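Sharing a chain and its predicted structure for anyone who wants a worked example. Both blocks are below, sequence first, tokens second.
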Amino acid sequence: MIVTLNNFLRAGLISVLLLALPARAASDAPLLPEDAVALALAHSPALAARQSRADAMAAVPSQVGTMPDPTLSLNAINFPTDTFSSSQEAMTQQQIGIGLTLPFPGKLDLREQAADNEAQAAGQDVAEQRLMLARNVRSAWWNLFYLGRALDIVSRNQALLRQLNTIAETRYRTGQGMQSDVLLAQVELSKLLDRELALNTARHHQTVRLNALLGRAVATPVNLPREAATELPPIEDAATFLKLAQANRPLLASRRKLVEAAEARRGLAEKDYYPDFKLGMAYGFRNGNNLDGSSRADFATVTLGINLPLFAGSRQDKAVAQRHAERQQQEYELQDSQLQVGAQIEQALAEYHSAHNQTALFKTGLIPQAQQSVSAMRAAYQVNKVDFLNLVRAQITLYNYETQYWKALSGGWQALANLQAAVGVPLPATKENMHETQ
């Protein structure tokens, strides 16, 4: 029985471990850029707050476009204070009435129109926030990816410099080299160590930033792919992107809706020169008899009131001027946003083309040439045909080129992320293919 129980417990433990393996494997999967964007869009508190604001504003139009609630009144009128009898005086009555405020025709429609445009602008603000969040996530992701590659290059160069240091020490001990070569190698190793410390600090900062954008604990480990797409795709010219932005950028759509809202409020201010109406109806019940013995008749009352714009110069005129200025403000802000979007597109394109040219230059020219130079100098150093200083300089040059290549590639993808955010729609042929975990 004990053996059976032990076997059962072992089987249960193994089952639990097997069930846990897929979940752990999923959590250890490399975080791709699009996965990071999806996480941020699903868990960002800032985006959720903006969406809640838009939801709240969407509930406003029907409120301001609905007629005011009627009022019910119950009145005791003309009761004598000596007896408070309802039948003593002929004018005493118990009255029930209903009143209703009727805004001048067109006012409710304009209020609803203004609120609806503002609600639509708030909805576009949510879309704009999503674009900016996706851009920031991609930027942080690519910065983090670059820092990982830079640390790999530092580690590889540290190993190479240690080898050179060992060679220099051996040659110095055998009288074939100089002590300055050993000291130079040690100085360069110390520089790489300092660079490694700086890169690790920068990677920690980027990890914290990325986790904050993803809406999760800032100390959460981030596992990135080891390799990235090294071919930056061809893209269209600025005119094409400007046209796309005019049609698709949520920021511009929001500004246009705010212009329409300001126009509706200006029209509403002009309507305020016209009066609103207050309509009332009441029925008064009387007790007692007339002098001839007949029962007293009840009273019916109808009232109609209007507000008189007697102070139009200091109220309505000023309100119209205010709304006119507010509309101009929204027009100017729309124009400014259009200029800013154009500048963003031009800047992103310039950064992208620069990165595209740099990566091609490093990949096909500078890095292969530097690698050949290091190999040749290392062989020549072994036979005393090249001094140690030139060999170290060649190795440092290769290190700098490799680091600059990954920085340029990362910058190119970040420029595409900025361009996509500026345009407002996904760009064709810009999928970032990733594989192999870091």
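Comments welcome. The radius of gyration is 39 Å.
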